Sequence to fold (528 residues):
Amino acid sequence: MKKNIIYIITVVAIALTSCFDDLDRFPANDTTSEVVYSTFDGTKEALAKIYGAYTLSGQVGPGGKPDIVGLREDQNADFLRNWFNHQETPTDEAHCRWNDAGIPELNYIKFTPTASFTIGLYDKCILQVMYANDFLRNTDGRDYGAQQDEVNYFRGEARFLRAFAYWVLIDNFGNPPFVTEKDDLGILPDQIQRADLFKYIEDELLDLANNQGVKEARANEYGRADMGAVWALLARIYLNAEVYTGTARWTEAITYSKKVIDAGYDLHKNYEHLFLADNNVNNPEMILPIAYDGQSSRVNGGVTFLINGGSRDEYQVKYADKLIHYGIFSNANWSGYMVRKQFIDKFDEGDKRFLFVGENPSLGSDPSDKDNGLQTYKYRNITSASTKDKPVYGSDITFADNDFPLFRLAEQYLIYAEAVVRGGTGGSMDLAVEYFNKLRERAFGNQSKNVANLTAQDILDERARELYWECFRRTDLIRYNQFTSSAYIWEWKGGVKEGRAVSDHYNLFPLPSQDLLANPKLKQNDKY
Fold:
């Protein structure tokens, strides 16, 4: 199943390019669109292009023709690489020792509207919205005969993927431009306010949930959105609703996380195996991934970036007993990303989620020194059949096979627990503790670290241990008022060794300057 969707994604990345260039600024190629959408197979390929915008950085593999002119495929043309750098690098969970343009601003929470990764994340999300809009525009009113129901599900998936892109925009940028398939081509889109965009995302997802807009949970082809993904995103936006709108929605977070929990997903027995090269098989925890294949979807971002960014040649030998092998041999071991000491201190001895190696847990006085800070081997291009004496590698030794979990069951357990602790109704504290302890039992292999009571801080710390390097940390710290404030300080926060609070306007990233110049309807976020 994974091979099927990856193959479709990569083939149509080239085939449909002329159809999708700058869709909401210039008219689409109507002749090409008519050909693509005239058949069921062509329409499915067009849907794959929307998924492909999350997986791929361009049209011809790891380099050569990025989806967006001006972005670099070895840097900021990949969605996951950009998203990771916004969600993890400014926090205690990551630090990048490189001084590439845009990196220091992320490391030290000194965001600017001209930073390359900020431009990249913003542009990729807008591109994903545009692809979805074009798909919905071209499938509206067409008659697909006996396959109409399936195309209706395709349309639901496109709406979900657009809602996800808008969620990334609302979470990172607050007040982005807003356009749907109902707007005329070529317009300059209006700016939407954060609370209004929340309402739009909520309404879209609720419509899909209440009107069977996508297939039932666990009933779709692997790598494609279903009802489980819709409920999971609803639970996530409700968990953060107070940040986005000023009004808490804990009860709704309980409702939709419980729907996911009751849908038949299960925790994987082995935490390490969740992130290896064969995590697309025998993985009952996965709700929706970004799917990768080392031979068919080659990018210098994605999980290949997560592996190489946190790996180092010497550690491959020195810590072979622990990490076995990174699984990448060519263009490997970039040794750029570490984690910060305050994050490491959150782990108790015996926690199997502690997948870190190195000598000095602190970044020290020189955070660019590769000997400072521990590195994670959470992601490796080896399979779950690997042993120390016999690693089993992914299908390619330059690009990773690992899928990235956009949604998995463990997050839903923690959403439920937090929403109950914060006062949401319709849930049970006993059940919240039970779900929390399920993660602890997997982490330690027994009940020795189980808890009888929960606080909100307990859950934040558990989210750090369970979900690190999965693009949650900045959002979580903001929800707890610990990202910019003095309530939680980590080394080099704010650009000084001992760490310091920063202005709260950094809870949002700035809109890119180039978009403000191109669209006078847009207003920059406060204090930028």
